[in-house]
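Check out one such.
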Amino acid sequence: MQERNLMFMRRLFFCFATAVISALYGCGGGGGGSSAGPGPMMPACIETADFGCISSSQYSEELEKLREVHGSSTDFSNQWGLSAIKADQAYAHLELAKGGNVEPGEGVTVGLIDTGIDPEHPVFAGKTISEEFLADAVDERGEKSSHGTAVASIIGANPESLRPDVREHGFTGVAWGADLKMFAIPLGTPPPPGTLYKPITLSALGSDDAEEAMLYQHVLGQGMDILNLSIGVYGVIENYAAQDIRSNYSRTIAALAQTDAQDKTILVWAAGNSHGFACTPGTNNCDGSDHMDISGNPAGSLNASSPSLLAGLVARIAELQGHSLAVAAVDRNGEIAEFSNRCGIAAEWCIAAPGVDVSVAYFGPHQGRTVRAIGSAPGTSFAAPMVSGSLAVMKQLFRNQLSNTELVTRLFATADKDGKFADRAIYGQGMLDLGSAASPVGATGITLGNTVGSPGVNVQSTGLRLGGALGDGLGQALAGQEIAAFDSLGAPFWFRLSNFTGATRGPSSLVRLRELTGQSPITRRTAGRLTTFTPARGSGSVEQDLGYGMLRFGYRERPAGAQGGHFALADNATTLTFTGSNGMSFSTFTASGFADGSPTSGVALAWRPFDVPVGFRAGWLAEQSTLLGSMATGAFGRLSADAAMTGLETSFEIGRWHLAADAEIGKACPQVRDGIITRMSSLTTSAFAFNATRRLADGGFVRIALSQPLRVEGGRAALNVPIGRTKDGAVLRQSVSASVAPSGRQIDVSAQWYYPLVNGELRFDAAWMHNPGHNANADPAVRLLAGWRFEF
């Protein structure tokens, strides 16, 4: 009955003291020997250039702010297609990753085969532009509208240098930071409306096979990753058989296939503008006969149900699949443009993009003179560069680590396929969505293997919660180290490795609270023997005097030793202790099975003869899922450790003062497995405590203490960290050697005052902590505890 009352009394006191802690503990807290589990993992943060490593929620907030900045700019709004493809979202991702001065597409060169380019146009001011004339092409002088200048501006226009009178009409290119390389070739002029549609014959196409093959070989040999091809010939691909195409166009096919290229150039073709052309009734794809051609003859309307011949080659020629794609055009409402060829049989390799009312740079005649201005134009010719520019942004964002075929795969996989865009016959893979292409797809994981597709663990489940003994050591050592994670499509995203680590907020308040609620802080020596265990809240014990010694069974107890020392790792232990009359004590204990403690087992041996001021202690600890109270999850693998320790304690009287000292040293042997931590050396550890206690005339007492919680004094960890990937999917790793010793040394200075009251005591505890958490950069912390202990 007395034991039950005592337990009840302690619980009441504990609740009261905890409430006081909540009110007074606002000054901070420090590390210490963990008397509880390591706690939850720190949430992974996302590395940014201007804001450091921020939480996913803060990242989303900053992303939305930057999207609004980009989306609300006049230059962005003047090119409506940028909003339609969610380029603002991609720019925001890019700016967060690389900083506010980044230019989309920077470092990427986009090639174009077209009529040429006017590099003097103001939208290209300051850009790196090169031009090469092929197939007897000549430099454009402005006698007619420059198709190539218009197409190139959709990719690379930067309106900052426009004259004030046209600045309000300026627009942003999809990848305005990209370099442009124009390969100028002669192109025919589109026929006037009503001209009868005449598809090219394969014999006519094949007549220039050798010359075209040489041209493509030359262009594709320039080392570009993206080639825009807003060119084509009349003819719907579904009306040409693969074998016939190969027979007449084999050399060009071989050039476009780039069989020997390690990373093939992406070919972005305009799907064609033939839908609705006047056609001869009864011919392929010609519907009806209720139209009139330009000569006034009855004509049908062409159903361009698939891309034109060149854009659609990918549907017939397997060697082109993966790096060649066709682009259909949509209007402001997302409807397929009335003139645009549909995706049809090339749906697997076709995508839709804005191609109506597209803002372009105009270079050509106007009212009898040559002008450079801003205009608008329709056509799949202007939808294709939307895709080419988007690919350049993707290439930049992923640090050129995705192969070009993977970029195309990602472009298709992230396209908008909802609603009307689900109609593959019209929209193919769907509507271009650059924002989604720049965002993680599916779960983002850290691979533990050597290839991107090998098994890994989710970023959100990865963390290293450092116990008080390790403090900030490993986190500081890993500062500045990146780690790469990969989404479900294999794209890399980068995080700061040190932000996956977090120090446990020290439970010193709980340790102090238990001392505060103890029977007497003056001595642990009772009935001529050394007490090896200190009761925890809710604890209990059964003792049996054997005549030659005492046998004791306890549960939910904390091993004794230096305050915050090694045995504090086995809090809430189930114990079996034998104490002999000669002062020798042997204990075995296990902390497994309690929800608020880490699985830890061990043995302790203590010896202190009666009336001898010095005692010795030794022990062994086995942590099953922690390392000195530190816990790893996810990519950090699993940690466990065996630790041996030895200690010395002494106590004696000087006048009215009772003095005590306790010190421990230890050595932990870590085991690491299944994660990026590949090896850890043995760790040397220490803990100590000194205190002086004096009885007061009123029956109370005061105590002053100086202590250092358990601290790692030395040791190193080796890590094998994924930092990126190669284009063929091999994971790039970096070997890292890091010290695990913390940067500082926590020293606690505390004072306690016990004042007796009727049926109880009023107790106060105050502590000042230097380098809390063994962190040299941490501000000093203060802890205040107060409680009223009463008995009944």
